[in-house]
Structure formats: structure tokens, C-alpha cells
TrEMBL record:
It comes from Planomonospora corallina. It comes from the Bacteria. PANTHER family: ANTI-SIGMA-F FACTOR RSBW, ANTI-SIGMA-F FACTOR RSBW-RELATED. Residues 45-163 form the Histidine kinase/HSP90-like ATPase domain. This is ATP-binding protein. Keywords: ATP-binding, Kinase, Nucleotide-binding, Serine/threonine-protein kinase, Transferase. Gene3D superfamilies: Histidine kinase-like ATPase, C-terminal domain. InterPro entries: Anti-sigma-factor_SerPK, HATPase_C_sf, HATPase_dom. One of its GO terms (molecular function) is ATP binding. It holds the Pfam family HATPase_c_2. The keyword Transmembrane does not apply.
Amino acid sequence: MTAGSTGRMVEEPKSAAGFLQATRGIGFDELLEAGRSDATACPLPRQADSVKTARDVTRSTLDDWGLSEFSDDAALVVSELVTNAVRYSLCPPSQDETAPITLMLLRIAPHVLLAVADPSDTPPTPKEPDFTSENGRGLYIVETYSRSWGWDHLNRGGKAVWALFGDSD
């Protein structure tokens, strides 16, 4: 599958990087350090209240860009991605316990790509959702509410899990 598939996981981890480079000539590593008007990067501590901060940053950024129609779905998805990043960056502890989680949003009109980078090299693994369990549905929610999603290794170590929002055309 590719980044153009509607509502399905991207099976090739470099698909997002290829999409970014084809459309903007930039990958996640560069986004983390770039000051761009069409991108926002927000470092987050590895703690539970980072989820609320990520939702707030996502909503305000989308409002500033005039893309508030994606706010509800993007806030739900970013909640799941940051929750996973916090959970998996703490257990087992990574080598650099000070490395933050980073929320990134990139406007690629008429789309928005949001990503959460964390220091863990462990790829996200979708599970069959168990609707009676309190957890295990995060990636199912990401898949359901975004146009497509996937993950990329970062050159500095760790990964970025991303979700694309926009029209299916």
C-alpha cells in the first residue's frame, strides 16, 4: 500500500519519507530542526499530560492554518500517538532518558501530515482491536480517523509515527 491508500496502514516504512521528499524535499529529521511557516514542531516531555498539550497544539495550529475541519479527527489521532509514544519510550527506558517526544505538523495543501517522533526504535504493531479491553485500540483509531498512516525510522535513532489528513481526491 502507499500513502495514497484511503484509511489503510502504509506497509512500507519509508513511504512517508518518500512522500515528503517528493512533495517538499524534506524528511522527518529535517522537520525536527527546521523553522518553517508550513510546519510546527513541539517537543513534549515523556509524561501523561503531554497528551493534552499535543491536542491543544494540534487544534491551535490547524486553526491558524485555516484547517479546523481536521481538528477533531487530528486531535483524537494525536492523543493515541502521543499516548503510545509516552508508554513505549518509558518501558524499557531508552538509552537517552532526556530525549523528548516531538509532535510535528506539516501543511501540504490540501493535506496535513502529523507525526509523533519518539526515541524508541520499536515499530508500531497494530493489534486486532479488543473492544472490551481498556487498551490496544490506538492504532485502529489512527487507521480509522486518518486518510493513511505509517512510520519512519529517524536518522538520529527512534521513529516517527505519522498520519495523513485531507481529501481523498
